[in-house]
């Protein structure tokens, strides 16, 4: 009856299956407004169900307004529910078209910011998760506050000291849902009074959108091989914040020298503004120790944003911010208003991962691995392009920038690459002022073996040359 077939061995209850089947027929217009539904006794007999099961399904439909039932009258389909038939056809056509297009094989994958998750010590992480779950008590399962698990902040402060030489108090650390969320909070703090945010140009388009979504007005400052050109900082402007990636400028790769860092701090002091330091992957430096953060120069002027997405795995969604004392009260208020806190289990497991130094060992191993891959991609580019390619920013991180003096890479090139199975991003995609970096490509290599790098560069050369 009604063309309904129920599966009695299915995990979904029979009343829920019946409710969904009738609901879908009403939405598709197979049961039109005003149509009578069978009586509960009749439908129960036809479908070999108990009458109570049918009554419960009807009650769900009545409660949600799909059908109308009044005492002494039959149950009818309510008015105004059927979806527009033309819309249904459009959706079906679109869905069918998407499914009909076969996925193109990927010949080369040079996406940026991709750690090699194949080498992450999953078993060790699973041990930490199990131990953390066993150790959590009832008091830990409630709201623990917007600052994050205290044990994690203690371990994070210790790790920052041994890995970066940073002397940070746990009370100044705020756990976030990844670096992007930290930037959203920083943008919310600094977006008032109509002030502007200075940002590197080019800079990561996703980070830029984090500010724009908060209504911030952006003022781009060009970068060169040493990062933001501080001699171009505007005079007389109302500046609230300065967004920089000083330890490994994204995407060009420069390291901001001390003289420019000092100039930024002096400028922030004069403007009563804050520097937002995004330190997204400087742990992976291949010619010496990681670069000291700007935060060490002026902890009262720098909001330091860090993440474990590259160090551990992106799905962890744990980042952190070191917040100047003057902003901490407002930061707590904003975080409480938005989503209160991060999930507790991941924080507890990460605290154990840090305490046992397993993260330290993993980072040390991956620094060697990524360093070998950096050499592999530099050699592959030299072999494929010879002197036609110049490399920027190859001493740190999981990507480099390749400049091709006589080439032009725009968004159309990006689309053609994807159609051809080559995943690569023009630097121009991250530029605010267009037209200055059209001859540069961003090549991520952290997630690729040397063999995959060599094959990918050959495919890219065949596509470009």
Automatic annotation (TrEMBL):
**This protein's UniProt keywords:** Aminotransferase, Transferase
What name has this protein been given in UniProt? Answer: PLP-dependent aminotransferase family protein
Q: Which organism is it from?
A: Anoxybacterium hadale
